[in-house]
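User: Some background: our group keeps a shared notebook of sequences we're curious about, and every so often someone picks one and asks for a predicted structure to add to the entry. Today it's my turn. The entry only has the sequence so far, pasted here. Could you supply the structure so I can complete it?
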Amino acid sequence: MSKEGTNKEIVHLLCEGFKNAEVAREDIRNAMQEGFKSAEVAREDILETINAFATHTETEIGGVKHSIGGLKSEIETMNKRLNRVEALMVTKDYLDEKLWNLKGDMVSMMRREVGHHEAKFHTV
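Assistant: Of course. Here's the predicted structure to add to the notebook entry:
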């Protein structure tokens, strides 16, 4: 027999090939459907995870906003206290001037006392 097949053999091989191709096509279709189902499940899992993360993040942000509100209140209180301290605080120049005046007054008093005692001492 030659390498060339008869028409009957060729038709037979083609039919077998088409049957195998149809089986392969069905296998591919089934595999794709399963893959799509798996992809849908994976997509749902991803969406659930993202939703849980978003909910957690929203809760955390709410807590941070609450904390920031408390800090703002504390800063306002501290600002009021600082303004009061600044209003009552004396400056270095003011304090230096008052101390020099006090020193001058003390020196004057000491001289008067010494002069008064010297005068008593000389009269005696």
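Suggested note for the entry: The longest helix spans residues 7-88. Residues 26 and 32 are 10 Å apart (CA to CA).
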